[in-house]
Amino acid sequence: xxxxxxxxxxxxxxxxxxxxxxxxxxxxxxxxxxxxxxxxxxxxxxxxxxxxxxxxxxxxxxxxxxxxxxxxxxxxxxxxxxxxxxxxxxxxxxxxxxxxxxxxxxxxxxxxxxxxxxxxxxxxxxxxxxxxxxxxxxxxxxxxxxxxxxxxxxxxxxxxxxxxxxxxxxxxxxxxxxxxxxxxxxxxxxxxxxxxxxxxxxxxxxxxxxxxxxxxxxxxxxxxxxxxxxxxxxxxxxxxxxxxxxxxxxxxxxxxxxxxxxxxxxxxxxxxxxxxxxxxxxxxxxxxxxxxxxxxxxxxxxxxxxxxxxxxxxxxxxxxxxxxxxxxxxxxxxxxxxxxxxxxxxxxxxxxxxxxxxxxxxxxxxxxxxxxxx
Length: 374
Ligand code: FSX
Ligand code: SF4
Ligand code: F3S
What we know:
The protein contains 15 helices and 9 strands. By secondary structure, it is an alpha/beta fold. The chain has 2 domains: 4-222, Rossmann fold (3-Layer(aba) Sandwich), CATH 3.40.50; 224-316, Cytochrome-c3 hydrogenase, C-terminal domain (Cytochrome-c3 Hydrogenase, Chain A, domain 2, Irregular), CATH 4.10.480. It starts with 12 loop residues before the first helix and ends with a helix. Bound molecules: ligand FSX, iron/sulfur cluster and FE3-S4 cluster. Ligand FSX binds at residues 56-60, 116-117, 153-155, 160-161, 189-190.
């Protein structure tokens, strides 16, 4: 086997190029960028990374380490210099703290700060201390010299499980505290490791951060709703639902909407970029999506609660159609063209029974109602 001379891994040239091609497509870059991605992953460039852990379960690091594309994760992780990571580094105590201070001082303005976990703010942040410093102090100090911050996981992005009411520690996400740095959020509990690895590759390739949505999530990974790519979607459109765990519909792989699937309101790439290389993701193994990338859904709603579908979108493999504006119904011509597909999508949307309490959509609608009442 011909092994590439550019990495220390036993990677055939063919497999290396295949990985680069897949990565280029995953990042939403045109095929013409493939050469650049290859060049970056072949280079000896190292991006300094400081990784801080706060209130969390370390599932984000775990899922990254367990990522089962050794080629991809090794290739990309080879491009970073992980100068401080509490659960991975060999050093500890003062030695480790010194390594972090040195890295911050010598890489000022050149390193990425990765934050895993929420930051407690109540009582001056005494609920989480590492090396004698509160999470709040460590975050502020490390953020200052970073050129960008990546909040990995829902905890770092929005506060996660720690921030659920009554939130005794005053846990918040990075964006609630740091206002003067670009922040990329990679939510998920835990997130798909490839969304994180691809964000690093995107930066290494283009020397800029990917385009983000209003919650700071890269659009290439969080630009579409789960519901748009879900393999159970034809069942949704046809009105075939599992009604209880273990019933006939569940066994037949029917749509999990009536069991509380949050796929219609959740932006993430799980049905496409699945987990663990076995084609698995929550919905494929019979569990409703619990909206783990969404601040208003995860831990804010029960698993069984149904989401309101405000804006029905067609299944991604159907021909693109205009199924009409919210509340206006479908254009009759369009409905005629798409027939059962869009028609069923709208019918299913009409079945939606409950809005998410406190969701941004609900708040917006309340505001709209308020405005209309004046
Ligand atoms: Fe949070 Fe990461 Fe959930 Fe855990 O550490 S996003 S609790 S899976 O993994 O921060
Ligand atoms: Fe898939 Fe859930 Fe949508 Fe059903 S409601 S099609 S299970 S994402
Ligand atoms: Fe999370 Fe839903 Fe994906 S629960 S892992 S966003 S399917």
